[in-house]
Specification:
alpha+beta; rod-shaped; two-stranded antiparallel sheet; single chain; 2 domains; seven-stranded antiparallel sheet; 196 residues
Length: 196
């Protein structure tokens, strides 16, 4: 060897059993944890928002009522059927004025003027029950002017579903008219069945 003393070896590093993480590592871990929590919460919210709270059914409320045997003798699209509806409305509200009437073969929904807020009524062929408040921009008209036999002729084939909406199109725009939706498509007529 050359006579030079060898440099001393560095001391072996010692490691503590537990090293406290550096502040940057702590922040990264907190941020990753918070990000994961936000993703999980967002996924749960999306799942709840897009899930159907009730199992799917093969019939809607309207179809069920229309096809129901419980009120098979009630036919809104006859003069006798509309007369019964008008009598029930007069008995419950003291008036035959409506803002609009939505008529199905076995049931009807009426929106009538109320004290400040229109009121919604549902008719099942036997009972007219209050169904809460409604909304309508229409002017009232007298429901006695709707001819049930005319509705039957406009709807055509009684085996097909048909819906009739009676009401004034907009405030100040003339008389009430009918919008008939059935097997032949959608048609608008006046209350006598003429083209609107």
């Amino acid at each position: 060897m050359s006579g030079r003393p060898e440099p001393p070896l560095p001391e072996e590093p010692t490691w503590a059993l537990y090293d406290e993480p550096a502040p940057a590592r702590r922040r990264t871990g907190v941020l990753l944890g918070a990000g994961l929590a936000v993703l999980l919460a967002g996924g749960a919210a999306w799942s709840l928002a897009t899930s159907d709270p009730e199992p799917p059914t093969t019939t809607s409320r309207t179809v069920t009522e229309v096809d129901s045997d419980s009120h098979a003798d009630v036919q809104r699209f006859t003069s006798a059927g509309t007369d019964r509806l008008v009598a029930a409305l007069r008995g419950r509200t003291g008036s035959t004025q409506v803002l609009e009437a939505i008529l199905f073969p076995g049931t009807a929904v009426l929106v009538v003027p109320g004290a400040g807020t229109p009121q919604r009524w549902e008719w099942d062929g036997e009972h007219l029950r209050h169904a809460g408040t409604g909304a309508s921009f229409r002017e009232p008209f007298d429901l006695t002017r709707v001819d049930g036999d005319l509705l039957g002729r406009l709807c055509g084939d009684p085996t097909q579903a048909c819906t009739v909406v009676a009401g004034r199109p907009l405030a100040g725009q003339g008389d009430a008219w009918l919008t008939v939706t059935g097997g032949d498509g959608v048609r608008r007529t006046d209350l006598r069945g003429g083209a609107a």
